[in-house]
Design a protein that fits this description.
Blueprint lengths: L2 H26 L14 H12 L11 H4 L46 H10 L8 H9 L2 H11 L6 H12 L8 H6 L8 H12 L16 E3 L16 H4 L7 E3 L21 H13 L5 H12 L29
Antiparallel strand pairs: 1-2
Amino acid sequence: MSKPCILSLAVVVAASIASASLANAANNKEPIQPIAAAKTQNPALAELGKKLYFDPRLSRYGFISCNSCHNLSMGGTDNLKTSIGHNWNQGPINSPTVLNSSMSVAQFWDGRAKDLKAQAGGPIANPGEMASTHDLAVGVLQSIPAYVAEFKAVFGADKVTIDEVTKAIAAFEETLVTPNSRFDKWLKGDKKALNVNEQAGYKLFKDSGCVACHNGPAVGGNSYQKMGVVEPYKTTSKAEGRSAVTGKDADRFNFKVPTLRNVELTYPYFHDGEAATLKDAVNTMAKVQLGKKFTDEENAKVVAFLKSLTGDQPSFKLPILPPSSDSTPQPQPFKK
């Protein structure tokens, strides 16, 4: 091969490498990244947490479990504007999804729990939710021999503690990630994973500024933002947002940005559940956060993109809960 031919080949190869590098760099610059599959560090701990997650005996009258408000058959939510708690109490706020919640900067809409472990203990002792106390809940578990044996196998002690309970629940919740959405496949190079409308919706989502808040693997969950940036958001909800935690008036109506993963499953939307459909949610966000008004066609494209964010839902064998003993409190769902 002559020297000019060798030089020409080198130029072609270099150009190909440069082109591939540019393509990879462009892909890496996407504001959203694929979700990685969960890696369980302690399967026995997560299995215990799964039982506790589904066990209504952690509630005061024995009929509300974590899954009641964060139903894993319904996108990790209950699809209600606000949840139903103890004595059929109407909750003050919409239940956020538990799916991919391990990726959040903190837990609850106002971020008052620093992580999943801290969050797990909240509903148990909340009088409007499960209405028990940590001592009562631990006492129930301590009255169930099979639970005592399983806690000992996992933690090495005969006595059950609330710290162990919340640690186990958090370990299970950390497994509730949803990889392999069509959008993830598209990010990884399968350009046929999204149709023309979905790709146009993603471009509109980026160009309109939605990615300023909805970014990262969870497409949100990593910052707090004011609800109503361009114009006030009108609601009857009494939720104050982040200011209820920080005490700072500047944080009023600042809420944790929700994840948009599996968003087609987690209706209704916002902290007050006022947006019944994705179309409603997109229009409201465009108006009060971006100062934009989407056409029906634009809205449909954004919604199409959002639906491509639905990933593989958690799939596992339902736990068989240990039977109560004679000393375990009986459920009293109708007690006032």
